[in-house]
Amino acid sequence: MAEFIKNIEVKIKRYDPELGKELVSTYTVPVYRGMTVLDALLYIKDNVDGSLNFRYSCRMGICGSCGVLVNGKPMLACYTQILHLNVDSILIEPLPNMSTIKDLVVDVSHFFNKYRYIKPYLIRSTYPQHEILQKPEDHWRYWNYTLCIKCAVCYAACPASIDDKFLGPTALSTMYRFNIDTRDEGVKERVKVSEDNIWLCTSCHSCTLHCPKEINSSNSITELRSVIVEGGFVPKTVRDVLSNTFLTYNPWGMPSEKRAEWIRDLNVKLLNPNEQCENLYFVCCGPAYDVRCQEIARSTAYILNSIGLSYGILGVDEWCCGDHMLRLGEKGLFEFLAEHNIQAFRDHGVRNIITNSPHCFNVFKNENPYSSLTVNVKHYTQVFAEALRNGLIKPLREINAKVAYHDPCFLGKRNKIFEEPREILQSIPGVKLVEMNRNRENSFCCGGGGGRVWTEEAPYDKRPSVNRVKEALNLNVDIIATACPFCIIMLTDAVKALGLEDRITVMDVGELLKLSLP
């Protein structure tokens, strides 16, 4: 007999279609070692409340029918052991982005209709007498994608799926699966299906993080975009971003000579050609050119000076890191930018790089050819948090405000940097830090990744940034703090779109820290 561990409180968000109302039912459930969330639901239905409705079948992660939200995270109930959650209470809700039929049962027809739309089968011009033989390496290219169980967990986690137009991670990764199958001849046919909505993906990585089968849907969508770019099926908004970056080395299309104008009266060293510099502040295109984001760069430089760090910036020799170009599928342009920046790092003898943007940070650390460099890369929040611990700076001025921290996807989901920004905010006198309902690895994307910060055309009620600001509004916060220039742009635009300028301010963590320094 399984070992009894403890009792836990299970809250279930339910929907009664006859009354048209939502309610939350609370139950006490005895937890035994190895008990899953599905076991808890079965215990409630069998012993406490037989009216509870939920889906399940195989109980072993094959059928995909038992997907639910557990404490805000989409997952399979049969896969999730309660003790692994390390909590004394859990909230179970139906999966979002689909309408609820009753209790935890959602209407998955919309999800499956999108899946069928992309023709999830081999397309052949003629049916051969003998099947084409594949080499093992061809087979293993797409093998992982065949593991998808259509559980809709990735669809529920996806911020872009709040827009019905978006096909969703499952459909797009399945499309990629067939496109890389050497037997399939339907690339052009499928590209026409996806070319008008694949650009809604924000590359936030949520689909990959939450997939119970560990399928890298985020990467497959990037690869699928490459197919579309190579085929020339690119909308004008995307084409303009790529063209600007190729011609001026930044997606804003601004002259390189203006890249360092933000330093104005600041004591920032602009490096001369081949001048050696151990510590490089890589500013990023946003803080260099965007008027709002320039204040982020100025705050960062001010604090770096306060710490006493000797550093320099590249100025005209700093080109776009290329992360957004890579996510948009333009690999050639990404490599072109990367090769220039790598050479600049070598010419200046750079050993440490500090970035404002999580996108620069991520691409330098994790993407070839940057990742082959023997350079220490840090996000500015890591540098500032370390300086606070070592007593190099000390916030003294009070900022009396209720602050919610928004985790940038490329800092949190992709690189697991969660605590340093919070550590900085908690060090500021007067700041009352509160958590968004969706935070850390479960944070809801601002909608600016994957080039969408420039290509956004969705109606405001279908934009992830607006959804995120509404979440902060419900917390009654004064400030949304974040640590990414693209999050600043997207969330600020959402605040304006909702007419909340007098109620909520969007600020960078570094800006708040600067205001608190004597």
Topology diagram in text:
Layout: E1 4-16, E2 21-32, H1 37-47, E3 67-70, E4 73-76, H2 82-85, E5 89-93, E6 100-102, E7 105-106, H3 109-117, H4 136-143, H5 153-157, H6 169-179, H7 187-194, H8 206-210, H9 217-231, H10 236-248, E8 279-282, H11 285-289, H12 291-307, H13 323-327, H14 331-347, E9 352-355, H15 358-366, E10 376-379, H16 380-389, E11 401-405, H17 419-426, E12 431-435, H18 452-455, H19 464-474, E13 479-482, H20 485-497, E14 505-508, H21 509-516
Helix pairs in contact: 3-6, 6-9, 12-21, 16-17, 19-20
Largest sheet strand order: 2-1-5-3-4
Helices, by number, come to 21
Residue share in helices? Answer: 25-40%
Distance between the termini: 63 Å
Anisotropy-based shape: globular
Instruction: Extract low-pLDDT stretches.
Output: none
Strand count: 14
Q: Beta-sheet strand percentage?
A: 5-15%
Q: Mean pLDDT, nearest integer?
A: 94
Largest sheet entry: 5 strands, mixed
Q: Structural class, from helix and strand content?
A: alpha/beta
Give an account of the 3D structure.
The chain is α/β, with parallel strands linked by helices and 518 residues long. It has 21 helices and 14 strands. The protein has helices at residues 37-47, 82-85, 109-117, 136-143, 153-157, 169-179, 187-194, 206-210, 217-231, 236-248, 285-289, 291-307, 323-327, 331-347, 358-366, 380-389, 419-426, 452-455, 464-474, 485-497, 509-516; strands spanning 4-16, 21-32, 67-70, 73-76, 89-93, 100-102, 105-106, 279-282, 352-355, 376-379, 401-405, 431-435, 479-482, 505-508. The strands form 4 sheets. Strands 2-1-5-3-4 form a 5-stranded mixed beta sheet. Strand 3 and strand 4 (73-76) form a beta hairpin. Helix 12 (291-307) crosses helix 21 (509-516) and helix 16 crosses helix 17. The chain is globular, with a radius of gyration of 25 Å.
